[in-house]
TrEMBL record:
Residues 565-634 form the ACT domain. It comes from Runella aurantiaca. One of its GO terms (molecular function) is (S)-2-hydroxyglutarate dehydrogenase activity. Pathway: Amino-acid biosynthesis; L-serine biosynthesis; L-serine from 3-phospho-D-glycerate: step 1/3. This is D-3-phosphoglycerate dehydrogenase. InterPro entries: ACT-like_dom_sf (IPR045865), ACT_dom (IPR002912), AHAS_small-like_ACT (IPR054480), D-iso_2-hydroxyacid_DH_PdxB (IPR050418), D-isomer_2_OHA_DH_cat_dom (IPR006139), D-isomer_DH_CS (IPR029753), D-isomer_DH_NAD-bd (IPR006140), HAD-like_sf (IPR036412). It catalyses: (R)-2-hydroxyglutarate + NAD(+) = 2-oxoglutarate + NADH + H(+); (2R)-3-phosphoglycerate + NAD(+) = 3-phosphooxypyruvate + NADH + H(+).
Amino acid sequence: MLTNTLEQTYYVIDFDSTFTQVEGLDELANIALAGNPNREKVVQQIRELTETAMNGDMSFAEGLRRRIELLQANRSHIDVLIDFLRTKISDSFLRNQAFLHDYADSILILSSGFKEFIVPIVTELGIKEENVYANTFRFDAEDNIIGVDNDNVLSSDKGKVKLLQSLNLEGEVCVIGDGYTDYELRESGLASRFYAFTENVEREKVTKVADHIVPSLDEFLFLNNLPRSQSYPKSRIKILLLENVHPVAREAFEGEGFNVEFVKGALDEDELIEKIKDVTILGIRSKTMVTRRVLENAPRLIAIGAFCIGTNQIDLKTATEKGIAVFNAPYSNTRSVVELAVGEMIMLIRNVFPKSVGMHAGKWDKSANNSFEVRGKKLGLVGYGHIGTQLSVIGEALGMEVYFYDVVDKMPIGNAKKLRSLDELLQVADVLSLHIDGRKDNKNVIGKREFGLMKDGVVFLNLARGHVVDVEALVEALKSGKVSGAGLDVFPYEPKTNNEAFESELRGLPNVILTPHIGGSTEEAQEGIGHYVPERLLEYVNNGSTTGSVNVPEVQLPLLKGSHRLLHVHRNVPGILAKLNNIFARYNVNITGQYLKTNDQIGYVIMDVERSYVDGFVQEIKDMEETIKFRMLY
Ligand SMILES: NC(=O)C1=CN([C@@H]2O[C@H](COP(=O)(O)OP(=O)(O)OC[C@H]3O[C@@H](n4cnc5c(N)ncnc54)[C@H](O)[C@@H]3O)[C@@H](O)[C@H]2O)C=CC1
Ligand SMILES: O=C(O)C(=O)COP(=O)(O)O
C-alpha cells in the first residue's frame, strides 16, 4: 500500500521503451515465433499495432487484443524474454539505481505491458513489487497465452488514467514515459507534469505535448534536483562530430548518454561559428579549420578531438589560451599512409599508370623503357617521425637505401642514414617522400630551388600537407621531366565535400597519381581512430585526465572515489598554488589529492576535496583573475 502524505511527490514511470529500451510484447513475439517462416511479417504487424496504439491512433484495448491474437506465445517464452530484457534496461536507469532504490516508496511503474515480465526486471533495480501496475496474461492448461485479464482496467481504453484515478494519490504526480497514453495522465489532470522520455524512442506527437523532453533519466533527476549519478546530465552536453568520423566514435559518446550531432562533411568558418555556440566537445578531421574566431565563439567548448594525426588545422595557441584541451590520434593511420606511399612509389617508378591509361584506350605498349625496380634505389625521407620511420623500415625491406632529414635529431632505424640538411637529401634521393607536419613554417618547404637540386627523373611523393609544396614549381618540374612521376594525396586547397570538384594544374599530367587525401582513409585506421580519440576525450570529460593532449599538460589521474574533483586551468603565472591553498585554508576545505602540471602558457591543477564544503569556496576559485576554465566532477 502506498502511504500518501500531502508533501509527497510520486514518480510514475512507464516500462516499455522507457525503463527498457524495447517493447516487451514485440520482443515476446520475436522469441515465440523463432523458426516460424512468417515471423518477420507477424512481428512487424505487432510492432505496427504497438506504434499505432502508442501514438494514440487506435483504441488501446483493440490494439492489445489484436497483438495477443498474433502472439502465439507460452510461459517458457516469457522466461527467455526476461533474460533478454535484463540486457535491455535503459542505460540511464542502470546508472541511477540508487535513486530507484532510495525513492522506491514514491516510484510507481504504470504500464500497459505485463507483470509477468515487468516485475522481475524492475524489482531487481529496487522497485517495489506492490508498486507495479500492469496487465496480466491469461494462460490455458498448457501454459499458452490466450488472452489478458479483462478485469484489469489497464487492458481497457484510457486504462492508465483509470488506474491512476483509482489510486487516489494525494500529492504531486509526475509522469515519465514515451507514449501518448503516458501524456493522457497529465491531460486528465491526475498528474501535474509529463516528461517525454526520448532515450529510446522519440514520438513527435508525444514530445509536442510534453512539459519537458528528457533524453535520459539523468536529465529528469537534474531538473528535479534529485540524487543522481551524473553531476551534470550528459544529455545536456553537446558533442559535434564533423567530417564523417567512424560510427564507433558516435556510439562511444551516445552510449554514455551525450547529445551527439553528426555531420558528414566539413564546415566552413561561419557555419562552424553558428553551430559551435553550445558545443562542449568538437570532433573534426584534417579539413575543418578551427580558427581563433571559431574559438572565440565557443564559450562552452572544453575539448577538441582531431580524428587524425595532423593538428595544424587548429589554432593551438588560442585553444591553449582558452584552456581547451586538444587531442589527436598520433599513430592510428600511420601504417595506412605508409602502405599508400609504398604502392605509389612502385607504380610511379615502373610508369604503370600511363601504361594503364594507354591500355584502357586500346594501346599495347610493351617495353622496359623508363621502368625500374625500387631495389637498390635511394629513398629520401623528409621528416623522420612516425610515418617517416615506418616507411624507412619497409623501404629497407624492399632493398632500398634509406636517407632522411629531420629538423629534430632522430635515431636512424636499421641502416637508414641521417643527413645534415635538406639540400643534401634532395641531391641523393631517387625517390623523395615528404612526411613533415603542417606547421605554418613548413609552407613551400619544397619549391623551385629545391626541385632544382633534385636528381633528374626523381620520383616525388607528398602525402603530408598540400601547402608544404609549391604546386606551380612542381608542375614545372613535372613538365620539364625533372620529376619523372609524382604521387600527391594532399593539396593547398581541398574540396570541402565529395560534391565539390577538384581544380588543379596537376590534373591531366602523365605519371601523376592524384588521390583525394585518402592516406589515412582505410577501414582499419578509421575504426582505430574512432575508438582512440573518444577514449581520450571521455577520460578528460569524465575524470580530468589529459593523457595524449597536444596542448594541455598531461596528467593521468586516479579514478574519482568518494571525493569531489575540482579541475582548474589557469594562466601560468607565479603563485597560483599558494592562492588556491589560501582559499582552501580559509574555507577549511580538506584536500584528499592534488596534482599540478604546467606548460609555458597554462597550468592545470586538479584538487580532490572532501564533499563537505560551502559553495562560496568554489565561487572564489572561479573568480580568481588567473582562472581560464573551471569545472567540477563528482
Ligand atoms: N595523407 C594523409 O592522409 C595523412 C597525412 N598525414 C600528415 O603526415 C604528417 C606526418 O605524420 P607523422 O609522421 O605521424 O608526424 P610526426 O610528428 O611523428 O613526424 C613529423 C616529423 O617531421 C619533422 N619535421 C617537421 N618539419 C620539418 C621540416 N621542415 N624538415 C624536416 N623535418 C621536419 C618533425 O620533426 C617530425 O619528426 C602529419 O603531420 C600529417 O600532416 C598524416 C596522416 C595521414
Ligand atoms: O591524419 C592526418 O593528419 C590526415 O591528414 C588524415 O586526415 P583525414 O582524417 O583523412 O582528414
